[in-house]
Design brief:
It is built from six helices and seven strands, in the order αββαβββαββααα. The chain is an alpha+beta fold. A hairpin with a 4-residue loop joins strand 3 and strand 4. The two termini are about 20 Å apart.
Length: about 200
């Protein structure tokens, strides 16, 4: 979702997006519009025009969109909506949780560099708690079970192991970065590169 100045705000659900697109303000002006990429250009649509375009897309490009089925027709889920009545950028904090650490490290063991399913990963304190290590962004990394056992209660230097990257607190939600690798969400990249890198979120 973008604000009125085309600056990225947050990721919202399809239900919330359609709720905003169908709403008018007190002067009967639309609250939001759809921003869509066509031939490398950004084009704006209201809900009615988007529904009409969706009928065409459903027939000729069904695999290029996610769909919501209504009683009368199917409608493509928009990738980007712009809220016309909202100018501010909220201050956001990246949540310090297991999901975001796994996303930051892209499910790679930070010692052997191999990718694992989340069930086969654990979180490792780079400096063990038994040696005064804290539970922080800078001291927690993804670690496979084999490397975790090998490292034990030691620092990487003590265990003769090396981190493949230095753990840091992300400037923006690492889950969004993962979504950007999906071609379906490529249209977000320009807005996130300009907004999320330049705006202080912490």
């Amino acid at each position: 979702m973008l604000n009125a100045h085309y600056m990225a705000l947050r990721v919202i659900s399809a239900r919330r997006a359609f709720s905003l697109l169908c709403k008018d303000d007190v002067d009967n002006n639309p609250v939001a519009e759809i921003v869509h990429v066509e031939d490398g250009k950004y084009v704006s649509y209201n809900f009615e025009d988007w529904a009409e375009l969706s009928r065409f897309r459903r027939e000729f490009e069904p695999a290029g969109h996610d769909w919501v089925r209504t009683v009368r027709f199917d409608i493509a889920v928009p990738r980007i909506i712009r809220v016309l009545t909202y100018n501010r950028i909220p201050k956001q904090q990246v949540k310090f949780n297991r999901r975001n650490i796994y996303a930051r490290d892209r499910s790679l063991c930070q010692y052997c560099g191999k990718r694992f399913a989340t069930a086969d990963l654990s979180l490792d304190h780079v400096v063990p708690r038994s040696q005064g290590g804290d539970t922080t962004w800078e001291n927690l990394v993804c670690c496979c079970l084999k490397c975790n056992v090998r490292k034990g209660g030691r620092t990487p230097e003590q265990a003769n192991m090396k981190l493949i990257s230095i753990p840091r607190k992300p400037a923006r939600s690492p889950v969004i970065s993962i979504k950007l690798s999906d071609a379906r969400y490529h249209s977000w990249r320009q807005f996130l590169d300009h907004a999320y890198w330049d705006v202080e979120l912490t």
